[in-house]
Please model this.
Amino acid sequence: MARVSLKDVNKIYRSRHDEVHAVNDLNLTVNDGEFVALLGPSGCGKTSTLRMIVGLEEISSGQIHFDDVLVNDLDSQARNVAMAFETYALYPNFTIEENLAFPLEVRGLSAPERKKKAREIAEILRIDDILDQRPGSLSGGQQQRVSLGRALIRDPAVFILDEVMSHIDAHLKFQMLFDLKAIHQELKKTMIYVTHDQVEALALADRVAVMSNAELRQFGTRNDLYHTPASVFVADFIGEPPTNFFEAELFTDQKGTALHVADSDLVIQIDQQHAQRIARWNESRLTVGIRPQSLHLNGDRNLPALEAEVAINEYLGERSILTLTSGACRFRAVVDADTAAARGERVRVHYAPEDVMVFSGQTELIIL
Amino acid sequence: MVDGSAADEPSGGNSALGRRLDRGDPATFPEWFNTRKPRANLIVARWVPLALVGLPVLVLFCIVVYPTVWMFYHALHDTNMMRLFQSNWSWVGFENFATVLSSPRFGDSVVHLGIYLTFGACLQVLLGAALALILYELVKNNFLRVVFLIAMVLPMMLPPSIVGVLWKFLLTPSNGAINQALLNLGLIDQHIEWFNAGMSLWTIIIADVWNWTALPLLIVYSGRVSLPPAVYEAARVDGAGTWTTLRRITLPMLKEVIAIAFIVRFMDAFKFVDLVFIMTSGGPAQSSELPAYIAFQRGLREFAIGEAAAYAIIIFLVSAVLITLFLKYLKKVLKAQGFA
Ligand SMILES: Nc1ncnc2c1ncn2[C@@H]1O[C@H](COP(=O)(O)OP(=O)(O)OP(=O)(O)O)[C@@H](O)[C@H]1O
Ligand SMILES: [Mg+2]
Model:
């Protein structure tokens, strides 16, 4: 078991023609036994970060510690990490059982013991029916589970799982998320899980690190990410459907201070203490975010509301999503599935002032 | 064909799905294609494609098919120097084969071939494979790799006559460079008689190994280069050391490639004549003769055409069986891995 800490870690890929700065000044500490998800869009440097932790990629600058040991110069074997690869990297000449058991074989476990363990892990991952096949004849999802199994069969200091569920169908994924969480709770090992699917990240992880463009944007629990996103990017990335953003200006009249949305007659109310804080920021342009889940049709009459016209009413099973327009502004609200709001109808959606997120227009960082 | 689409419609052909791809269908081909005159825009005369295909076929027929048939014919006749130009060959059935198979000369040459296969062809493949893997593992710089590869491939680029003469010089017992060097190093205290009866086959093998090791080296090296690096990363993370990786991952993944190297060298072994002819002429006292060399000797120098043809056919059959077995094995391996 180990605590993994990254300090000012950089990764720069140099080729003859150009340089790619894949990871930029990353600081991250994953506590012993913690389940951390690394979440971010494609190409943001997640895999590069993992490969440096595992020791497959040289660290351009910075330090990586396992507990108090500096591992920069240790090779993968010495670091004792188990990794499931994004590209599976199965051994093509081995059967699935041999693939699963290879880490144990290397460690000198006896054949019957290896067989037993491989069978156990295969049952959990539901690949026990293909144990004597070879990777070449498997589907992508099956190969992915074998690769996950080959990591989970070990007893390492840290588990590193790189997009291990991207090719697994929704139904099975639900089961596997549950199983993986159970495995983690049983083993209590440090796990770092990379994904670009926020559902996986939020479902599994104790804390989530959101990355984009080679940088860490925010590292926190799901509540932190959801309620106090550090920036417009995080607010946009976390949550489904994505947060509504409005370009707005602060203005004050006799009723108090509010935010006026550009190119429409929408006015967003905020707490008066907050208004002072925003005013102190002294920025003319602000970005205001309200989650579609925070907008309630037929909400509390005492709360402020936005009035707009229904453009689309999407029925999604247990809920519906209304797309509303007001002037040039378009935003969405999550409502009950049986809401009968026809196109063109005018509706009022209520919100609580504390659910309004305000970001600086320039830096896109959160103000409150 | 231009207006054939309506007539060619299958029954119930109104549906777009059932419609055939047809030249008359404007949706499938552009207008100019449908209205052009058939053959009008062929850019060459009609005999040109026929000639382009026909001439090579004719050449192949003359230099491959006809001689092969001729060989089978004469293997069953008593063709020899006296009768070669008289055309009064008489049918002898399998007598030529019986002569060959019962002659001690043939038996000896088979033993020699066995020695050559084990210590020549096999050694070349094993040595080549080892060198290829060592080169790949130890030399990481691309430029140096190319330099080493070229250096090792050079012997293969020399014509056999040069290789033979070169080694004959190097191994001349009394004043050859190799004996001198060994003497100077104190490894031997008298000249090695490289071309003695007991030694000459081995001498040929030494020259041949020098000449041809690069071929399996190239084959295995290219195989190693094309193995997926991700698998090696996985092995590192899984904790496998160099030796385990080699034994459990690299060699199993390269076994088809190595098998191909074996096939190539074995095929050459069955028709191996050049160095034998140049270095020892099969001697002394036929002690370094291989079957193909005897076929050459009997047929083209002593004009016992029937007997030479019988030799050739025997060699052909044995090598065909061996190669078929190899290919069968290869197919099995590929199938087991989910390819093919
Ligand atoms: N070996 C390499 N050489 C050069 N550039 C690389 C290399 N590996 C990755 N990169 C670049 O580094 C950046 C980050 O890549 P990385 O694989 O870490 O992204 P990722 O977050 O894992 O993306 P994904 O979600 O698609 O897997 C990309 O712009 C990529 O092009
Ligand atoms: Mg990746």
